[in-house]
Structure to design on (289 residues):
């Protein structure tokens, strides 16, 4: 939907993100024209709202049908929807089902059946929400509020991918679990829970070698990106796979993997010492100059 100005487009996007809640005019004016005096900012807002109304309420559409603007607030009406709004709605519903499904159902078969139904419905909601995030939100907007929104939705996306991969693994839908976990580590390569899910999926398929390959990829990513090693939980899982805890994992790899871990840890520590020495030299050169 093209607007007369990029500012009008950005203001409209901000209103849609908050729909159907009302947003104070002063809040919008201060956000979009922070350097302008109050009167100028409010005048600028009036101009952009006029442009927005001209675009979404053309001749023949009753004023206020989609945009409500009073001296105090501005609101996009219920008839305007967004992928972001649907994304948030779906994840909220999934979280509520997850909390319901986590209640104790140990001694009631009917409740157990209901829990399984809730978990399946939760997974379907997560699937739908994740699809909506395929291209991200507000990709062309670089104002601070849009950047913060993308950061928040990325956090929500990683939660959804982690939860979905775990559910699909528990349902023995291994291919779907792998797809969710692979997207999780693509979005956030430092999320070890995603790597652990991939290891568990490979192990459940009897492919111990593939599970250990995921571990090595996790180890290399952490080492290269932040100079760290995997946590004890991840390393323990790798050791259990190496020792033949899953079909297809060669037992002789246990000792080799432990030696590799120790060598990589030592290398990481040495790299850290060298980096610190370089930084110390830089500081000394600054003082000399």
């Amino acid at each position: 939907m093209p607007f007369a100005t990029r500012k009008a487009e950005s203001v409209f996007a901000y209103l849609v993100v908050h729909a159907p809640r009302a947003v104070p005019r002063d809040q919008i004016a201060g956000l979009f024209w922070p350097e302008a005096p109050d009167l100028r900012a409010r005048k600028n807002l009036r101009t952009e709202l006029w442009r927005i109304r001209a675009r979404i309420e053309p001749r023949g559409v009753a004023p206020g049908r989609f945009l409500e603007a009073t001296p105090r607030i501005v609101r996009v009406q219920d008839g305007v929807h967004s992928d972001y709004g649907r994304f948030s709605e779906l994840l909220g519903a999934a979280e509520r089902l997850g909390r319901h499904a986590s209640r104790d159902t140990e001694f009631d078969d009917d409740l157990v059946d209901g829990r399984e139904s809730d978990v399946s419905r939760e997974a379907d909601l997560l699937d739908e929400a994740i699809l909506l995030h395929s291209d991200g939100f507000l990709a062309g907007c670089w104002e601070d509020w849009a950047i913060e929104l993308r950061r928040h939705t990325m956090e929500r996306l990683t939660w959804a991918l982690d939860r979905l991969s775990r559910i699909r693994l528990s349902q023995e839908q291994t291919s779907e679990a792998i797809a969710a976990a692979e997207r999780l580590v693509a979005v956030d390569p430092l999320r070890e829970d995603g790597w652990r899910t991939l290891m568990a999926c490979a192990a459940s398929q009897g492919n111990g070698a593939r599970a250990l390959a995921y571990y090595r990829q996790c180890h290399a990513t952490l080492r290269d990106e932040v100079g760290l090693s995997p946590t004890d939980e991840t390393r323990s899982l790798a050791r259990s796979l190496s020792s033949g805890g899953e079909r297809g994992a060669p037992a002789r790899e246990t000792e080799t993997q432990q030696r590799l871990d120790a060598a990589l840890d030592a290398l990481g520590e040495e790299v850290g010492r060298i980096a610190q020495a370089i930084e110390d030299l830089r500081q000394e050169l600054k003082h000399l100059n």
Notes: The chain is about 70% helix and 5% strand. The chain has three domains: 6-76, 82-187, 189-289. The longest strand covers residues 73-76.
